[in-house]
UniProtKB/TrEMBL annotation:
Name of protein: Cytochrome ubiquinol oxidase subunit I
Organism of derivation: Rhizobium helianthi
PANTHER family named among the record's database cross-references: CYTOCHROME BD MENAQUINOL OXIDASE SUBUNIT I-RELATED (PTHR30365:SF14), CYTOCHROME D UBIQUINOL OXIDASE (PTHR30365)
Signal peptide: none
Transmembrane portions of the chain: 20-45, 57-78, 98-119, 131-154, 189-210, 222-239, 322-346, 358-379, 408-431
Keyword set, alphabetical order: Cell membrane, Electron transport, Heme, Iron, Membrane, Metal-binding, Transmembrane, Transmembrane helix, Transport
Pfam families found in the cross-reference section: Cyt_bd_oxida_I (PF01654)
InterPro entries: Cyt-d_ubiquinol_oxidase_su_1
Subcellular location(s) of the protein: Cell inner membrane; Cell membrane
Topology of the protein relative to the lipid bilayer: Multi-pass membrane protein
Protein family (similarity comment): Belongs to the cytochrome ubiquinol oxidase subunit 1 family.
Residue ranges, annotated region (Disordered): 452-475
Amino acid sequence: MFEHFDATMLARVQFAFTVSFHIIFPAFSIGLASYLAVLEGLHLWTRKQIYIELFDFWKTIFAIAFAMGVVSGIVMSYQFGTNWSVFSDKAGPVIGPLMGYEVLSAFFLEAGFLGVMLFGRKRVGPGLHFFATLMVALGTLMSAVWILAVNSWMQTPAGFAMNDQGQFVPADWWAVIFNPSFPYRFTHMVLAAYLTTALVVGGVGAWHLLRRTAPLRAGTMFSMAMGMISAVAPLQILAGDAHGLNTLEHQPAKVMAMEGHFESHPNGAPLILFGLPDQENQRMHYALEIPKASSLILKHDLNAPLAGLDTIPREKQPPVAVVFWSFRVMVVLGFAMLALGLFSLYCRWKGSLYQNAWLHRFACVMGPAGFVAVLAGWITTEVGRQPYTVYGHLLTADSISPISAPAVAASLIAFIIVYFLVFGAGTFYILRLMGRLPRDPDTHLSGGPIRSAGITPAPALTEDHTRHGGAHHGA
């Protein structure tokens, strides 16, 4: 039934499917590892028990997310050999060592200290345990360094030469790693990871504030998350703008697709807010645009000329509709995060950060927004690179393994079934854990003071005391 499908397209769909599942877990674990380090550092500094209680709550969630990220990453990497063997052969001398360094440094660092972080606080002492938490956080960041170095090199290849077999071979490792887009891509991704985690933590805190189940714990995590969002969201917008300018320099066709510019504009290009891209006829239908605003953003000059896709051969153009809409999803969510941060600052200033139900509802709705924005950003990046795997040098059509469409389709169907079962169950369990924030130890029962023997006021009881001995006091 799949004989008439294109093997290259099916292989691309399979890789997109697996990487979409994979990327959300590292994006979460990078930020959550740093958050755990902050919580433990605050506990050592202030000796307040609440920070270590929040640490214990989130470390279980981190362990599950980390495990699912490792499993999904291993499965994804096998596709380099099964579906993209030509790409692996040609680009392997460059990307192989980088991915090996990621395993030897970052993954070994994470795995080596993860057990100590999860189970060793009462065995190794507070100082060494904090060091282990810092090493896990550092390992997640180092992992991002190597993986983004690989991806950035595929986007803006540098520091290589071609040998007699047509392979990319490293000529300058510094240029390979610190290629033109790496600093922008790394900054943008790490900030995205911190925002993603802050939105999840803030959403969980807001949920429990609305339910009033653990106001002290929920309020502490909510305040920390809103502070992070307020600080990082503006930085992310600035980093995204700088990344866009870098992309315009090195991958102009991608920016043309992001902007929806089918035609060149010699006297200033409009900013198309929304429209319906028609790549077949090279037109944008029903465009809602701001005159010359795109030139102002990209060139800082209202009248600066901007080239369009009419300067790019049809076969070298990326799929415009996908890139155009995924970019807008990412941008809209970015400004929604900024709005949440500003709203929280206003409520903090007014003294209603823990009482404003509308802020809490907004934070709950925005809880998964970071994952959606990360996926939209990766779609923009990877689809916008087409039709190349190594931009400007190796076409996707020339990177595929000599396999048939039915073989790729069979494995794709198997991945879809297994992924939704396994990772669906894992995600469901994480959500269950998030919904079970332990009550504050000083949460009192409502209904006034409890009297013993009907005469003497008894001390206020915690829920735990009531659960175990309330019947006796009531008697």
